[in-house]
Amino acid sequence: MPSERLYGDPSEWEHAVAHVDMDAFYVSVEILRRPELRGMPVIVGPRDPASRGVVMTASYEARRFGVHSALPMAVARRRCPQAVVIPRDMERYREASQKVMAVFRRYSDLVEVVGMDEAYVDLTQSPAPKTRARQIKRDVLAETGLTCSIGLAPNRLIAKIASDLDKPDGLCVLARERFLEVVGDRPARIIPGVGPKTEERLDALEIKTVSDLARAPENSLSAVLGPSHARSLGRRACGFGGTAVAVRRERKSESRERTFSTDQSDPTLMRSEVAAMARTVAEHLGSQRIRGRTVTLKIRLAPFRTFTRSRTLPAPTADPEQVAAAAQALFDAFERDAPVRLLGVGVSNLVRGGEGEGPAPGDAEAPAGTGPVQLALD
DNA sequence: TCTGGGGTCCTAGGACCC
DNA sequence: TCTGGGGTCCTAGGACCC
């Protein structure tokens, strides 16, 4: 049964932004296939008990045992031994996600997909945003069998927080003026941008709740968080945030990484793993006519210390052998003092378009002597 | 308890340039 | 003989998000 909490009237707002968050998405998709699991503790994650993986999603029944996303599977099994563990099936989730997003696009031209199970939908142009939000929930359920929770607010920040207030299958409408009244007593951690580290630092200042954070003087926040982080957090704690919903964002980097099932010390094996990941990244970029200049190697050693080493090439490339060579050179130069837990290769500094080697049209540097004249200021 | 894989953005120092 | 004031690019790491 959908539930609603209404704090404000969207028709009075300058902007109406909906944040739609699917409820326990991966698990819910699996339950569509196996309805007998409904009502049981279910975890989507690696089945192999020896695996070093983490929980991808847990059903609400499993969450009651303290199982949640990103929890190590070994811990999850201990907390909830009776849970049914299902291996992930990304292809199936992608299909379901596309159906869900198609529903959103019927209600707005401005849909920003944030992940497979999440999107912002701009309902500003709609004459009745609250009614639209209800219809979105109804359509998603009718067409996919899945439930979602929606936060409807005058900006993205409040919408995001509100979608979490009434989960699962909830709708929460929340005006800026009533933000602190509704969430002021909740932990400051619910503010996006406050992670474990920031929470710790706030704790040291006796700042526990959203209201504490909203009241905190900026100069004391600034001392622990730095001036710019302090300012933006202070604003967010009062419910101020942006309204722009972007349809598409260009990717800035692409990477592959792998955690070994047991820590590795064999350089030959690791070198070939590095080359394989580098080729995969390069081929994928190349298939989209994207090239990159900076190659980054990531290494996590057994004691869970993570390092990166990067190198910027003279010209952008999508050549698998060139990226593999660069990644291997970075690997060879890295001095390890412990076995390796994880290796990764990424490419950034991306440019689009153009064929083969060399700069794309428009990227070309002006020939010497034709550029703007520089004045010597010395 | 023992920590995935894919990303984004920010900071800070050093090199280098004018 | 005592040391400016920008700017950009590159590298490494940290925090955070889904």
Write up this protein.
The protein is α+β, with helices and mostly antiparallel strands. Among the domains are: 65 residues, MutS, DNA mismatch repair protein, domain I; 54 residues, DNA polymerase, domain 1 (Orthogonal Bundle), CATH 1.10.150; 124 residues, DNA polymerase, Y-family, little finger domain (Dna Ligase, domain 1, 2-Layer Sandwich). The protein has 13 helices and 13 strands. The strands form three sheets. The protein has a six-stranded mixed sheet with strand order 1-9-8-2-7-6. Helix 4 packs antiparallel against helix 5 and helix 10 packs across helix 11. It is globular. The chain starts with a strand and ends in a 26-residue tail after the last strand. The C terminus is likely disordered. The chain binds a DNA duplex (18 and 18 nucleotides) through helix 3, helix 8, strand 10, strand 12 and strand 13.
Keywords summarizing the entry:
alpha+beta, six-stranded mixed β-sheet, DNA-binding, 36% helix, MutS, DNA mismatch repair protein, domain I, 13 helices
